[in-house]
Amino acid sequence: MTYDTATTLLKSDNATNHEVFRGRMYIDGKWTESASEQRFERRSPAHGHVVSTFPEATAADVELAIAAADAAFRHGRWPKLKGAERARVLLAIADGIKARVEKMSLIESLETGKPLAQARGEVSGCVDLWQYAASLARTTSGDAYDTLGEDMLGIVLRQPVGVVGLITPWNFPLWILSQKLPFALAAGCTCVVKPSELTSSTTVMLMEILEEAGVPAGVVNVVTGKGPSVGQPLAEHDAIDMLSFTGSTRVGSLLGGLASKKLKKVALELGGKNPQIVFPDCDWDAMIDAVVFGVYFNAGECCNSGSRVLVHESIAERFAQAVVERARQVPVGDPLHPDCKIGAIVSEHQLSEIVGNIEKGVAAGARLRLGGKRYDAQGLYLEPTIISDVTPDMSIAREEIFGPVLAIIPFSDATQAIEIANDTAYGLSAAVWSRDIDTCLTVARGIDAGTVWVNTFLDGYPELPFGGFKSSGVGRELGKQAVEDYTETKTIQLHIGERRNWWLPRPAA
Ligand code: NDP
């Protein structure tokens, strides 16, 4: 039996009350247009109107931004400031974000298509990331070794790595930038930021906050425009010391390869095909809620999306029916409607990719239980989709879809569940649902993933490291090491007292 979604699209009248945001680039402390004087526009994927416009950066603009960051690092005062002083600036930035939550959330919602309520949660959550980075600016330190013998003291310094290129995607624009920039600044680095061309506004708005908070000119620079022309130099340019990228595995491995060839430090936060593994003894209601939340949060446009559910075969049919019933109640539609939980898909390209993936799954023999089609309405909306009877070899079980699409895969025991969970190129996150502690720990230890949730999903804290195994990335963000990732280690060896000559015998005592 095939279900149709009963959900009707939510509508709102607020969309038209929005002023177009005219963004500019921020280079060496100045607000600038592109050398070419060209601009590009971003339209709301939900409403179709122009939300914002930005300069289309040229190679010359990117060169200026990198030169400014380089000069600010080599000759500026930011890397030399006391940790306490950098912390004060980061805390002022956190306050600046807090004061602009409404303004930034609205434009984030209009550009991404995500529900306004969710954008508010995301923007206000960034405050905590900047505050946490401020705490690390004061506490990150090197080490000393007084255990090397009477005549030697070892000192290990943590020095800022230099100029960092930051490339961010469109799904959580301000959040993902806030997982990188405050930590790079806490370390004393200088940066060039390239936001996604689809969602550049909050990155540009953040520069107003940085300016007010007293970040010196050249320390952070923003260039706007297309990935290959504007982003690629941040991986290749000789003056860039480190690349930190979040986005697709395809572009991440391309840029990581280019940066590694130049022997730069590289941090990559890439895709996922994250399994939630459900055992029959779990808390049923909590699990169903977390499965629906896990796949439909941010319309599934989320590297951490719980896009695969591995269900014990004894409960697979009961699970499919329950999750379909719950998914039918999730409100879809205008992101500005207060009840909205699933907004618009970010672009026509992304929407047709998702639909293509669904069709591929059905053609391979999987069973469409809910949704599967775009809504016949203005705006880029997709029905919440559930597909069951998926086998681990199907592309729908293995490839990142990045949309509101759940694949249900049955398993027979914990060993097989772990095998299926690990049988993809990715290893970002996973969850296990059971009341049995042995089951939870066995599965959590066996899965190749940077994060494993037990009886919950998608919680996150700045204190906890985040990142992936395998093709999900290289390195970790957040956690107490977050600032260290933007440093180089320098060893200083201090000799104490008279140094023994290399070849002359010691004078007799
Ligand atoms: P991309 O990886 O293409 O984009 C991420 C960032 O990289 C953007 O700023 C983009 O700029 C930039 N970029 C793109 N191509 C290049 C290049 N050749 N050189 C330098 N920078 C580049 O992701 P998409 O936006 O195209 O999304 C495609 C897929 O990626 C999604 O379907 C999803 O699977 C995955 N994705 C994963 C994310 C994650 O969080 N792990 C986030 C976003 C996407 P621009 O936007 O201007 O092209």
From TrEMBL:
Note the Pfam families from the entry: Aldedh
**InterPro entries to which the protein is assigned, alphabetical:** Ald_DH/histidinol_DH (IPR016161), Ald_DH_C (IPR016163), Ald_DH_CS_GLU (IPR029510), Ald_DH_N (IPR016162), Aldehyde_DH_dom (IPR015590)
All residue ranges annotated as the Aldehyde dehydrogenase domain in the record? 31-492
Keywords (A to Z) from UniProt: Oxidoreductase
Q: Name one GO molecular function term.
A: oxidoreductase activity, acting on the aldehyde or oxo group of donors, NAD or NADP as acceptor
Annotated active site residues, numbered on this chain, are 269
Q: Which family does it belong to?
A: Belongs to the aldehyde dehydrogenase family.
Q: What is this protein called?
A: Aldehyde dehydrogenase
Q: Which organism is it from?
A: Caballeronia calidae
